[in-house]
Amino acid sequence: MPENSFYGWYDDASQPVDQPSFEPPRDAPCPFCGKAIHAEDVRTHSLMYQAPEYAKRSYFYRTHRTCAEADESGIGMDGFILDMIKRNGD
Predict the structure, then answer these.
(1) pLDDT in tens, 13-62
(2) Mind listing the pLDDT tens digit for each residue in 66-81?
(3) Does CATH number 3.40.50 belong to domain 7-88?
């Protein structure tokens, strides 16, 4: 398993939401600001890598809620995380 502290994933749609296949540390750095995420200020973002065939995993990452709300692009760090997933071969 690659060293990864930014995103997690589910391998099956039937998995309970609190039991991902891989979960990043809950105090991982926020991709926006780099500071540790904490329970009082967190937002979870869900995404799926789009490929020519059905994506086998669904992914998620966490940021500070305040950082996400300040993001004027409206897409958060999706591109950064998708590039990392591709690079890591996840």
Answers:
(1) 889 999 999 999 989 999 999 999 999 999 999 987 666 666 778 999 99
(2) 999 999 888 888 989 9
(3) no
pTM (predicted TM-score): 0.85
Domain boundaries defined on the chain: 7-88
Q: Which long-range contacts (CB under 8 A, 24 or more apart) does 9-13 make?
A: 9/57, 9/58, 9/59, 9/60, 9/90, 10/57, 10/58, 10/60, 11/56, 11/57, 13/58
Q: Environment class of residue 30 by beta-carbon count within 10 Å: exposed (0-12), middle (13-18) or buried (19+)?
A: buried
| Residues whose CB is less than 8 angstroms from the CB of residue 13 and which lie 6 or more positions away in sequence, other chains included | 58
